[in-house]
Amino acid sequence: MRFIFELAQLQQSATEIKQMLDQKIFKIGVLKRAMSKNKIIVLSDIHIGDNSPTVWYQKSFHEPYLTAVLDHVIKNASSIQELILLGDIFDFWTYPPDKRPPSFEQIIEQNPNILGPQGKLSQVLTALEGQVTYVRGNHDMNVTQEDLNKIQNPDYTIKLSPSDIYFPLGEDNKKIVCTHGHLYAMFNAPDTSVKFNPLPVGHFVSRAAAYELQQTLPPGKTVADLTGQTSPNSIDLKSLATTIMAAQSGFSVTDLLLNYITQSTKMPEIQPIILPDGQTTTIAEVKPLYSQLWQQWINNNGGARDGLLVAIKAALADAKDYYMGWFAQKLALECGADLVVMGHTHTPISGLKKGLIQYVNSGFECPSKPDIGKQHVNFIEIDTDSYQGAIFKVVNQQGSYQIEADSAEQTSVIIPGLSQDYSCYVTVENKSPILPIQLVRYEANEGHYIVAPTQFIGPREKGRFWIQDYPGITKGSEGRLIYFTGDREIMLRYSCPVGLSPNSCSGAEFYTSVDGINWGERNQIVNKGIGHPFFVRFVL
What we know:
5-stranded mixed β-sheet; disordered N terminus; single chain; 540 residues; 28% helix
């Protein structure tokens, strides 16, 4: 009997050991798969709707392009960590005012090959084992998790990001940040101050544009048959730039915008507009509701001259890609990212000229038929090992849709050709393995801080900040700060002056550059101090 009991115990122990080994083998397998998955694919600005003539995405033309991208994801799933749907995937804006925008279910019904139970998006969910994340944009800012659950899959659902700013590597690793971009565009950022919360004034601009298209499109034609359909608002707002650039406090940018839109589209201000939730309004009713938008942006960004400069950039960010680049760099430095990925502007961007970070933009993923040669259906591939983003495109080769690497222009943080950037981009590295460093105080002698110096830098960590010159007649940028290192205070100085005076920095061991790529030797100010912007890396 004792023998039988001991044998049973031995068998139980062997079973437990086997289960433990199986668990370890499983965990090792998961880890290996995770380590091999070093790519993230980003799609944005597809604008899938109900295929009404005024909607940019037309199933009959664009579906093969989108299918090619999703097939590419499925085929390469073994190396893809995640698919990020980075806003404006669905479109609830580009509809005539007398038509209520479709429901999420109606859009699914009209696009079964992509969104149905056997559709490509469901196949992607299976191939990536559910690693698909949705980050909202402006044309789809009302999308909910309940909506996404309606894209049927037997095992997985698309996850809605709880924030419009998403860190795909997690909150503990913010080296990569993805956001649609509308948060930095005055006319398209969510507006919680009006009764149409969160619809911004840009929604009504798009509805007015659709009104004009409804009146002018020939029978049987859609917006996909027209050229130049690339503006995020459906309207070319560049002609407003001069007025906005000259704006001062108290200026009503929404009156200017809506007057311009109604005049250019010939839509009456009393034309009823049916909103996505079924409410009805008019441009005449909308105008006073958004009348404080300009001042709100000034106040929310520091007020006075600094707030005004941010408001100007935000008002033009839809039309001027360099202002979106400015906001991208600001975001990166605020959260510690090396790579920012955006959409929204419908302009693909491959990098930032003379910047401290990398910025890429996926562009416009439903160009019209006449534009398809000049523009491409693009997507972004992120390498999570190097924190680099690359642009790819879909090419139609006689009915065969192929994926190819694409090129795109780099952008800047200043108006190219008309202004210069006399910023100081400062990095402070704490080389101590034990002691943190703490900011005591800082000041700007010239210019202003876009991103303030880092308050606390832990052992073997770094902080980055940005002081920029004011536009117009300027002396450049110059600042100083004091850090406490645990046993002493250290004052750091940095300046990038206009004119013949050289760049300067002092206070600790440093390295410098004037392009962010080529760095000088220790304690050497490169290029004899001449050049801008000025990059400084202090080592404490």
